[in-house]
Specification:
The chain is mainly α. It has helices at about 20-45, 55-70, 75-95, 95-100, 110-134; strands spanning about 50, 110. The chain has a domain at about 50-134. Helix content is about 65%, strand content about 5%.
């Protein structure tokens, strides 16, 4: 499912009327509730980045290659822990529903804050896990 709102270039509010079977209306309602924070962030930031897992995959590959070259055991462990956290968040934040809504060759775009927030969460999770391993 994906949404396109248009025809209100300077609008600050909109009303959406949902009709149909209860299950479909509930799914549409959940979709809009999930979509609103992203739209709000994009309007504030005016900056989009490619969505999906491509960026996460590149970060994981880079961090793992650096960890393989690292000689200090603690540094290597924190890098590997960070890569694991990014991998977990990549799975969580990369929605198969969004990928299915796009045509072949299309790109999912999202506010840059979504990526930076996910990376921040990965750093926090890695530090927490690292401290529990020591």
């Amino acid at each position: 499912m994906f949404g396109i709102l248009s025809g209100c270039p300077k609008g600050k509010a909109t009303t959406i009327v949902l009709c149909g079977e209860d299950k479909l209306v509930e799914e549409a309602k959940e979709y809009f509730l999930d979509m609103i924070p992203g739209v709000r962030a994009e309007m504030k930031e005016n900056a989009l980045v490619a969505g999906g897992s491509a960026l996460y995959d590149k970060i994981i590959k880079y961090v793992c290659s650096e960890a393989n070259r690292e000689e200090d055991a603690n540094s290597k462990l924190i890098m590997e822990t960070f890569a694991e956290a990014i991998r977990a968040l990549s799975v969580k934040y990369t929605s198969q529903e969004n990928a299915g809504a796009l045509g072949e060759g299309d790109t999912l775009w999202e506010p840059s804050s979504v990526k930076s927030s996910a990376i921040y969460l990965a750093v926090h999770a890695a530090c927490h896990r690292f401290s529990s391993l020591k």
